[in-house]
Structure to design on (74 residues):
């Protein structure tokens, strides 16, 4: 799976960094989300999905590998 961010939508609520601090941080000036790393373990994948669920602005999108392969094929 892969995390995609639509940073234009981010309102700096910080739920992502609170939920998955090893994956997300916030820009010091703008407060907008910064992606630190793509999830590499099942625990990080769960945390990424939780962060996406908790983000109030829909900034975080979790793309599953099979979905990416399907969209690449079309
Ligand atoms: S939870 Fe969503 S709106 Fe808040 S900082 Fe993270 S990406 Fe931005």
């Amino acid at each position: 799976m892969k995390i995609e961010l639509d940073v234009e939508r981010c309102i700096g609520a910080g739920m992502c960094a609170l939920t998955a601090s090893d994956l997300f941080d916030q820009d010091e000036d703008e407060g907008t989300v910064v992606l630190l790393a793509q999830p590499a373990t099942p625990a990080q994948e769960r945390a990424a999905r939780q962060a996406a669920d908790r983000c109030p602005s829909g900034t975080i999108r979790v793309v599953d590998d099979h979905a990416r392969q399907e969209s690449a094929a079309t």
